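Summary of Year 1 activities. Much of the first year was spent building the evaluation harness for sequence design. The harness presents a backbone, in tokenized form, and records the residue chosen at every position. We chose the following record to illustrate the format because it has been used consistently in internal testing since the harness was completed.
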């Protein structure tokens, strides 16, 4: 059985402890997507008092509160007192020493880029439509050529058949002679 180590990571007001054979196994038990150890958000525990419970239940995440509710409230800053109308000093007379904000950036380069993209797309569509029409015209020409070729081939086959019949008759007469 692999040697177990105890690891800890903070989760809200709690610490999550887990006994696992490796950092990778501890991250899997916590359901972490990132390497918490590399970020300094997780560490190996060597304190025997903190290791006892996780080692008793390996692979199980043990949550322990980091201090009491009173400790948490004491650590919180008290709210700042609200200023009353009498506490607010009168505002000094306004002077126009305020620095001007930089001018708004020009949208012209963006408009030109968008127009160029739209013109490119329109040109591409027009060229594709023209090529589609040309392809249809060529397909019609090919179909007409094949039909004409079939008719001419049929006429030539008839001529071949007639010539063969004439030759066969002549050959037959020659053999009898």
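For this record, the design step produced the sequence shown next.
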């Amino acid at each position: 059985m692999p040697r177990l180590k105890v690891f800890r990571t903070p989760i809200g007001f709690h610490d999550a402890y887990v006994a696992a054979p490796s950092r990778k196994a501890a991250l899997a038990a916590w359901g972490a997507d990132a390497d918490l150890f590399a970020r300094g958000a997780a560490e190996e525990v060597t304190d025997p008092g903190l290791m006892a419970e996780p080692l008793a239940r390996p692979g199980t995440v043990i949550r322990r509160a980091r201090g009491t509710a009173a400790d948490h409230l004491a650590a919180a800053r008290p709210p700042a007192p609200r200023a009353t109308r009498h506490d607010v000093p009168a505002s000094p007379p306004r002077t126009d020493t305020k620095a001007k904000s930089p001018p708004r950036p020009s949208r012209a380069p963006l408009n030109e880029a968008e127009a160029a993209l739209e013109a490119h797309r329109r040109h591409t569509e027009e060229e594709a439509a023209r090529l589609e029409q040309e392809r249809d015209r060529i397909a019609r020409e090919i179909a007409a050529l094949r039909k004409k070729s079939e008719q001419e081939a049929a006429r030539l086959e008839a001529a071949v058949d007639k010539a063969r019949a004439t030759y066969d008759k002549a050959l037959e007469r020659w053999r009898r002679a």
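Strands lie at 5-11, 14-20, 43-45, 62-65. Quantitative recovery figures across the full test set are reported in Table 2.
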